[in-house]
Backbone:
């Protein structure tokens, strides 16, 4: 099988496949296509579940190994977890800026796995404004506050939204 992949000897994962089409270049257009494919599914999901925040890119499952992007309203939180993803940072950010001009991009590539790939930890604004200390989001009709800058990983466990919904019926919210 022929593929375009990146090999890194320092990584525990020696090769990450970006495409099985040998004629496909890994460039801004490549990232734009992958982002648009992922967005089609997320649009349906967001509308169905009444979400303004969701995982836009989930690494290998979206054909972008080592890349996680969470959307919190008009903030995109980027996490690059592999040397190959870091190598493509500029092309990815260019594609994000073109497709999401209304969104600020915040980097949360401050996880220990980057050190295993020989990379520095990075965190901070990439484009646009700094997110507020607590960013309001809505999930299944619930209003929540997310700390993008200091929360765990990208700031919030978006993949646990169904657990929070299931738990809601057992918890009485009492606000003073």
Residues:
């Amino acid at each position: 099988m022929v593929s375009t992949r990146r090999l890194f000897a320092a990584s525990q994962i020696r090769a990450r496949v970006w495409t099985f089409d040998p004629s496909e270049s890994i460039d801004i257009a490549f990232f734009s296509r992958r982002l648009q494919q992922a967005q089609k599914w997320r649009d349906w999901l967001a509308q169905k579940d009444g979400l303004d925040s969701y995982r836009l890119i989930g690494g290998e499952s979206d054909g972008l190994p080592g890349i996680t992007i969470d959307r919190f309203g008009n903030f995109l939180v980027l996490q690059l977890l592999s040397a190959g993803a870091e190598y493509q940072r500029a092309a990815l950010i260019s594609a994000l800026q073109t497709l999401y001009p209304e969104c600020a991009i915040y980097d949360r590539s401050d996880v220990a796995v980057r050190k295993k790939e020989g990379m520095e930890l990075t965190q901070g604004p990439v484009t646009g404004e700094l997110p507020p200390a607590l960013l309001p989001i809505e999930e299944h009709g619930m209003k929540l506050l997310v700390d993008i800058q200091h929360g765990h990983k990208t700031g919030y466990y978006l993949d646990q939204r169904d657990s929070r919904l299931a738990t809601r019926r057992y918890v009485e919210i009492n606000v003073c």
